[in-house]
Amino acid sequence: MSAAFRKAAKARQRPHRERAQPASRTKLGLLEKKKDYRLRAHDYHKKQNALRALQKKALDKNPDEFYFKMIRAELKDGVHVIKQSKDEITLEQVKLMRTQDIKYVEMKRVAEAKKIERLKAELHLLDAAGSGQGRHLFFVDTRREVQEFDIAAQLDTVPELVDRVYNRPTIATLQRETVKGPTDPVHLKTLAQQRKNQYDLLRQRIEREKAMFVISQKIQTRKDLLDKTHKVKVKKETTTRPAIYKFKFQRKR
């Protein structure tokens, strides 16, 4: 082949052009041909190797092997979902049982009980304002006595002290002694609010002491379950009491 023919054939060849970049990748900028190809090839082979490993693991697995997720899982819309157990126990109880032992819980419960007794001694179990209206029943014989009934005269006190359920002196006491304590309505309202706050604190401490007692019982139950004696669950665990088990009687030597 002559040089002139080769030159003419080369002139007739169309110039090679790279494939246009897809419109979905224009936001990524211009691609470097060699570098982009290497990255895509490396990612492709990595995924293929992972798929092969998973396929081998599935083939090696014994199809008759039992595991607990078989009974704790269910199929929803083609997806395996683990069934959530409905434990009758609060999150605070779980955290406390996992971190503290029964001796610590008992110590905290006894401390709460002492604080409760101290608060009761200070408040003398008086009814706080708004905590519930007490009732004092009076018995009369006729309807006329009901219409003409005077509470202040019946209680032998002044009308201003009728609404007080505590520290209600009689008229004779008021004539014999001077009034002690605050008499200003604003000051009395402040004292009533403070007394109500103290009763709220007392109620919270009583609830906390009950919760500590329940936690202590649950921890003790779990400790008793470590024994290898045959046992049968009688009642399930709830938020207010531990589970109840019946243990087989064993005669001690």
From TrEMBL:
UniProt region (Disordered), positions on chain = 1-27
In the UniProt record, which is one GO cellular component term?
Answer: small-subunit processome
Q: Which GO terms describe its biological process?
A: rRNA processing
Composition bias, Basic residues: 7-17
**Record's InterPro entries?**
SSU_processome_Utp11
Subcellular localization is given as:
Nucleus, Nucleolus
Pfam families according to UniProt: Utp11 (PF03998)
* Keyword check for rRNA processing: yes
Instruction: Just give the chief location class.
Output: nucleus
The alphabetized UniProt keywords are:
Nucleus, rRNA processing
Family, as annotated: Belongs to the UTP11 family.
Protein's name in the database: Probable U3 small nucleolar RNA-associated protein 11
